Structure formats: structure tokens, C-alpha cells
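dumping this here before i forget
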Amino acid sequence: MKTVRVWDLPTRLFHWLLVVAIVAAYITGDQGGNWLIWHGRIGIFIVGLITFRLVWGLVGSTYARFATFVRGPQTIRAYLQGRWQGLGHNPLGALSVLGLLALVGLQAASGLFSNNDDTGYAGFLAGLISSDLSSQITGLHKKIIDGLLILIGLHLAAIFFYTRIKKEKLIKPMITGNTESATGEPARGGGWVALVVALLLAFAAMWAVSGAWLPAPPPPPPASSAPAW
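structure:
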């Protein structure tokens, strides 16, 4: 057995920042009121994280790339039969990663167009659509959280199963970046140029969804003055 670098630093930072952001978004959304302002800001941050991960899945290091860990049904069947060996996400773990990215991305995107009638708070892009459509998206935004919590629960259960039952180390490599393997090759690629490109696209996505490019709303009409008599 030898120590092999499997997870690069950007992948590890993305993972733990997304964990913190999801927890913070859930808490601020549940509190409501003025906390919804921070809830929206966290949503923008999550959009940036998801954008970064999608780009990094194309230009990042070996085991962070979708081409490495997204596999077809034959590979999944081989894994279930105990005939698959490799580093990084296993074929079932890859499905979990894709599901989480899709659902978290959909949750963040729907929040951009949602509204809250109780507080008057609206998503950063809610003004681009009608109020009726915004209300429908708000309902979808509230429903997605249930599916997301179920998927997160399954993800945590899978981690517990692999670490406790199968004695596979999953958490430590996501902290240190290293794992133990007899035949695996260390991750390659994902240099500074790729990192800068991914970060620039992530910041561009955050700016776009913040609505900073939208024209400022017109000022309210002046209050009418009272008659002199």
C-alpha cells in the first residue's frame, strides 16, 4: 500500500464549503424574516460553488473530472458484483454526486425567482417574471428541500455504511486529499490556469444571478403635500 493523492485542494474546498453553505441556507430559510436577506446571499454563493464544480469537472485533476467517475450501467453492474476497483468516486457514489449537484443547483436557481408574501422579500431575479409564475416557483422551491434532505440523508447513510461496515476511508481523504492504494495513480492536471478559469466563471455566474446588471427600480412618487388651508 502506498499513499496516493486522489482529491485536489479545490475539490476538497468545494465539498466542505458546499456543506457549510447548505446548512446555513437551511437555517436562514427556516428562520425567515430578515434572515431571508442572508438566505438569498448564500444562494448566490451556492450558484458560484455549483458553477465552479461543473467547470472543474471538465478541467480539474484526474479524479475530479466527470469523464473519470461518471460511468455507464455496465460499470455499475460490475461494481455491484464486486468486480470494480478504482480510486475516487465509485460508480454508485458518482450517481449520488450528480444527483446532489443537480438538486442543489435547481434549489438555488428556483430561489432566485421566488418570493415571500409574508415579508415582501423576493429573489434577485424575481422581477424578470410575473408574480404568478414567481409564486409557482416559490412552491417548487419549498418542495425541493424535502427531496434534497432525503438525498443528503442517503448520502450520509452511505458514508456510514462504507466507513463502518466496509471499512473504507472516505472522510479522511476528503480532508487530507490522500488515500492508501496498492495500484492507484496520483491525480494529475487541474493546474493554476484551470483554477483561474473555473474561479472566473464562478464569479461571473454569481454576478449574473445577483441581478446587478438589472436597471434600478424607479423611485417612488413624491408624497402629495397637504393643502395650505
